[in-house]
Design a protein that fits this description.
The protein is mainly α. The chain has one domain. Helix content is about 95%, strand content about 0%. It is built from two helices and no strands. The longest helix is centred in the first third of the chain and has 41 residues.
């Protein structure tokens, strides 16, 4: 019989590592690519900037959760 607490801990660590790597990639590439556009938007309209920032936060969470779930299903099916 499989050790449930040990398996849950390994799954948590694996998910944390995958999610952490995806967040780092997101910050390095996406935010760096949008930096000047976001700065210009901030200078023009704080309200629009706030709405765009909230949409980016929500979008990031949804996309990263989908990618993480897909990768974990892929990894679990191979083990």
């Amino acid at each position: 019989m499989e050790d449930k607490p040990g398996h849950a801990f390994r799954s948590f660590v694996l998910e944390l590592l995958v999610y952490g790597a995806l967040v780092i990639i997101y910050v390095v590439f996406v935010i760096a690519a949008m930096e000047s556009w976001l700065h210009g938007l901030f200078d023009q309209s704080k309200t629009r900037y706030a709405v765009v920032a909230l949409l980016l936060i929500i979008g990031q969470g949804v996309v990263l959760e989908m990618v993480t779930s897909f990768l974990l299903r892929l990894i679990r099916s191979r083990t």
